[in-house]
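Weekly puzzle thread! Below is a chain. First person to post its structure in token form gets bragging rights.
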Amino acid sequence: MEIQYKRELKRNYLIIEPDWETQAGYEAKMLMENRIEGLLDFHMKYVDDRQIYYYDITSMQPLSRITEGRWISREEVCRLLIQIDAVLNRAREYLLDGDHLLLDADYIYMDPQWEQISFCFVPGLHESFSEALSRLLQYILKKTDHRDKEGVVLVYGLYQESLKENYGLENLLLLIHKDQPGDRENRWEKAEAEDEVLEEQDRNPWPDTVQEVFEEPRRPASPLQMILKIIACCMGALLLVLGAIWMFQGWRGIKTWGIVAAAGCALAAAAALGLELLFKRRDRGKGEEPERMAAEPADLGGQAQEKGFWKEKQKNLWVQELREEKRKEDELPIIPFKTVPLSAGRGQEDVCRLEPENRQQKTIEIRYFPFIIGKQEELVDFCLEDDTVSRLHLRLDREEGECWVTDLNSTNGTAVNGRLLEANESAPLRPGDELVIAALRYHFRSEKL
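Winning reply:
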């Protein structure tokens, strides 16, 4: 079938000329005589005994255009499938078959907020609904934000379900309804509790049985400190001995046994100092033992391994790797709906602008391409606050050094040098050309940097 676009009386139409010989019968009559919610308005004309289908797409955008510069969220995927199910149910009331729906991202029309989704019903089209829906899910999977892990898992599950034999739309809806808001809240609470446990393990990842093994080795005491410590201990012992002698024999006993007690404490201090120096020399070179044990897990002994210490340590390392990966993903740039200035900083040769005839209007500076002009501020690169301008009115592109303007199904149209463009039609734009955006007149200028 041949597809084209046309503008008639400020209305934009998607025109389909079927290439099959079978003439549309009751399906076309049903569409013309009934307004079915969720389907594009349908009209049919005859040209040389050939049927031509007209679909009103005024002020709507195809799914493929809306997702050019942004991701599809999980909620939008669910809304799209629920809308498809609702349209099929309403179509069955008029004896219309779902195999005639054109489930292609280029021909599913909606407003930029996804509040109203309309589908193209083509009388006489015979295409498997299941296969068409599977292709649509494959397209959505590529457009799903990879940082929304729940969304990716859901869309991938929907796509895998669509690959099964004899699947139905009801199977996909079951996957959607399994994930209720209450369940999501419970899962988030559980995830937060697990995250707190993991954070506590990160703060203290070592089991109590081997905590001391991995503590930082204490700084060894200096010789002076060691001597003072031994002297203090000996002096304390001497005072205790003298006190005991005084209690039993008085000053007379101290005079008799004091010298002996002092000599004994001095000998004990000398012996303690000698033993300390002996063991110090024997243990010389073993100061790196904690580090060696930390580097060689097999030398820790069976007690730590029996309690799963190394398994727990490996788990914590895995958790740290996941968190590092998540941190890197969170630092990725978010792709908004607005077009991104890809050409900025690439040494663009000239700067383009649209100069208004009405000096009260602002000059539109065009420093990157593609560049969208409309009146919906959060969706366009330049906002024209005028009632005659559509939300997404036109797009400016650059190809091989030449600028092009494309009308985006605007209500009041776009004209270049007095010629009104058809819906979705592109035309070259050269310096000095007049560009009319609805009721606003501009002149296209281009100058070297």
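Puzzle host: Confirmed. Bonus trivia for everyone else. The first strand starts at residue 2 and ends at 8.
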